[in-house]
Amino acid sequence: AIIANSYSNKNFKAQISFIEPMLDTQSRTVRVRATLNNPEGLLKPGMFVTGNVSQKDGSSSAGLIIPASAVLWTGERSLVYVKTDKNTPLFEMREVTLGNRSGENYNIASGLTAGEEVVTNGTFTIDAAAQLQDKKSMMNQVGEASAMKGMPMELSKNFQLDFQLILPDYMVLKEAFVSSNDAQISAVAKKMVTAMKKINIASLKNMVQSHVNTIIKTLQDIETENKLEEQRKAFAILNENFVPITKALKGLSQEIYIQKCPMAADNKGALW
What we know:
The protein has about 270 residues and is of the alpha+beta class. The chain folds into three domains: about 1-50, no CATH class; about 65-145, conserved putative lor/sdh protein from methanococcus maripaludis s2 fold (Beta Barrel), CATH 2.40.420; about 155-270. It has helices at about 125-130, 155-165, 165-180, 180-195, 205-225, 230-250, 265, and strands at about 1-5, 5-10, 15-20, 30-35, 50, 65, 70-75, 75-85, 90-100, 105-110, 260, 270. The longest helix has 21 residues, at about 230-250.
C-alpha cells in the first residue's frame, strides 16, 4: 500500500513490477517500480509517498513463520530446536524445510506445525550442551551413518577456487578481532567485500547464494560500524554463514580447524 502525505487517510494499492538488483550500500535501500491505478488523478509527479510491502508466499500452505535467528545451518540442512514440554525446558532438534525469507523471518514449508514453540535465541548454547551430552545435535546426527557432520553443500569447482582465495583474508580478520584492532578489522572487511562480490554465484543453489549474500552484508556491516562490540556481533553472524561453506571446500592445501565456544556472544555460542 502507498500513502501520500497529501492524502494521509487514503491507501493506494500497487503491485511491484520490478526490483532493481543493485543495493545502495550507503542508504541500504533498493529501488523498485510499482504499478498502480490513479483514476482520479490524485497522485502527481514529484509527490512524496511512503509504502508498505506485503508478500504473498504460496510455498507454505500452513503459513508458518519463524525468526531467522532460530535456524541452524549444517550443509544444506536447516535445523531448529523445538520445545517438547510446555512446563519444562526440554528441547529436541528438528530438521525443517524453509520457504522464502522475508526480512528477519523465514516461511516454513515443512517440519513444524502451528502452536509449536521454537528456540529463537541461544540455539548455539542448546546445541553445544547436546553435543557435550552426546545427544542429537548439529554435529551429531543420531541415526545416520558414522554420525555424519552434516551433508556437504554442492559447490562448483570455480566457486571453491574463488572462495579459497578469500580464506587468508578471513584469517587476518579473525586475528584483528583477537587483538581488537578496529582499524584493521574495517580495512580487511572492505577488502573481503570486494573479493566476495566478484564471485559468480548464479549457478549455485539458493541456500549457498543465501549464505554468500549474508556474508557480503555482514562484512559491509563490519566495515562501516565504528563500535567494536557491534563489529563482533556482525562477525558472529558472518561465521554462521562462512563456516558451512568452508566445511564443504575440497582440496585445501592445509587443514582448517573450526572452533566453537558455547559461552561466546553472551552465552549464545559462536563459531569461527
